[in-house]
Amino acid sequence: LTAVTQPTTAMFFYNLSGRDLIVEEQHYRSVGFFIGVLLTGVSIIFLNGLVLTAIVINRRLHYPFYYLLGNLAVTDLCVGISYLVITCLSGVWTSTVSTSQWFFRQGLIDTSLMASLMNLMAIALERQQTIFTMQLHSKMTNQRIILLIVAVWIMAILIGLSPVMGWNCLCDLSSCSETLPLFSRSYVLTISILSLLIMFIVVILYTCICVYVWKKSRRMTEHTSRDQSKGTVVSLMNTVLLILGCFVLCWTPALLLLLLDGLHHVPQKLLVVESFILTLVACNSLVNPIIYTYRDQDVRTTFKCIFCCFCVAYHAYLSCTGHEVKHPSQVQRTPVQTYITIYSSNSNTSATTWDTIATPQQPS
């Protein structure tokens, strides 16, 4: 009877894997760790929500690349929510979590992370296709982009929910993973290899973009100044290194940990810092909206409009409630008028290196 009732709680599988939850709970009880988790999760949700709002309200951003960027914001938004959920249900709460609750929280974070990872690959593919065909915008139609986005989510959901559908170790306790005690080791190995393959493809695609633009710049040197051509290539290299550096830095530790676990060679000391490795992966969803939008003038202008609308609405609220406003002229315009004024002052985006790689130039 004991053998039948114990597997209904996640604690049974943690004990089976030899995890020392007492040591791990010390991290979750730390005030500094809690504040760090809270700030990370809230920042992920806020930044990606801001990017998503900007893409929705600005029609100048209704192009294939921005649809992929918006989907990346959605996936990273889900990562932020699921990261807060899984952290709140970890540590001291692990002993009270049932197997179904554990599958829910882990499936949520796995699906979100896999969708984000595959969407990064989709963006790299779109950028490579656009640059190699020398187009201002991708030749991909909106229908193809929508199909690509749907395919990303279908694959992510299937991968994330595979353990719920039977790819687990509930019926074969000898095959249980150590990092994810309710998952089968074969599933963990498959996920790690698949994710490493996606990472490899992303690195190859951006490397090909660098090589292609570098060769093109050498051919154009005779038509432009050498300093201008050199500056373009340097800017390109810096941008690509920033993308790949953050991507590889955030994902590599977690994928190597899962790979070692799948091969049954994971050191017990690494399991203690598992929560920090997960935080590092979540940080990729924090830097994605910054990396992919910080040089886009249209997106930056839309951000300013959003903040101005909130400021105008706030001052209007203070005025209506009888509070003092230092500058009454700030509430004379409506949010719509403020938006139009700022938006009309936006100059055409110049064709910089980053515009070619990450932010397609808008037609005049």
Q: Given the helix and strand composition, which structural class is it?
A: mainly alpha
Count of DSSP helices? 14
CATH C-level class is: Mainly Alpha
Radius of gyration: 24 Å
Q: Termini, distance in Å?
A: 74 Å
- Taken as a percent bin, the fraction of beta residues is under 5%
Tell me the number of strands: 0
CATH superfamily: Rhodopsin 7-helix transmembrane proteins
CATH topology descriptor:
Rhopdopsin 7-helix transmembrane proteins
Shape annotation? globular
- Whole-number mean pLDDT: 77
Number of domains: 1
Going by CATH, the architecture would be Up-down Bundle
| Largest sheet: number of strands, sense, barrel closure | none
Instruction: Give the SSE order as H and E letters.
Output: HHHHHHHHHHHHHH
Helical fraction: over 70%
Which stretches of 5+ consecutive residues score pLDDT under 50? 1-6, 324-364
Short description:
The chain is mostly helical and 364 residues long. It contains 14 helices and no strands.
